[in-house]
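This entry is set out below.
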Amino acid sequence: MIALITLLATLTKNGANPMETMLNRIPHSSLKYRRWNRNWLLGLKKCIMTNAAEMAIAISVAMAAPFIPQSNQKMKIAPVLLYPVFGILIMGLLMTFAVEPVMGGINTALNAGLSSMSGTSKILLGMIVGGMMSIDMGGPFNKAAYVFGTASIAAGNYDIMAAVMVGGMTAPCAIALATMLFKNKFTKEQRDAGPTNFIMGLAFITEGAIPFAASDPLHVLPACIAGSAVAGALSMAFNCTLMAPHGGIFVFPVVGNPLQYLIALVAGTVVSALLLGVLKK
């Protein structure tokens, strides 16, 4: 407001008509708008000289005018507001009252079963938790085994977490190796994406194998589960331990018996890769 008053005061110096002065500064290509600009400037001057509040309202309305929908352009609220809000609400209710009770019961049963096996064969337990990491690669079975492993760390049983992590690292590494050994079994896109799974697998990101498993689950999943189970069993047999809940090769400095742990990973990866070459069409 102060700036506009100052502008008009400056233009009025020496008896100059501020309206004409401002209109003369409009580019020649805009002459056809001079009449409209004259009326607008006269109204602006009146607002400034009579009531500052009215001027502020007028400027605000002028700035908001382009965003006010016209009569022939009705704003569509549903796709912007209603669909997302009610979609999230419905999904939240379904997850809370339909999915969570079922999957929560499954996870509780899996954890109870794994806990009951802690006093039996360590190799069998390592085989089971390692294989579970590749059943759904990030789903309920994977997470049940992972949570069981992290809980075992808190209880001071570091060997279970080692079996869990090596089982989760095996599937992506095996798929990467298989895309290099059995190129005719994979599409060009899969062969190009295959080596990336080495990085993801070594970083303990099992989800890198999901696109390959989703494209051919009947052949990919059994191969990955078998290799992960072998890796988990060998980790237990070698008495490997892990005090970190995640990290892949980046936490190898805190792995007990790291050389044997690497052997378990390589063995599981080779088993899965060979099975992929045999099973995958």
Remarks:
- DSSP finds 13 helices and two strands in the chain.
- The first strand starts at residue 241 and ends at 242.
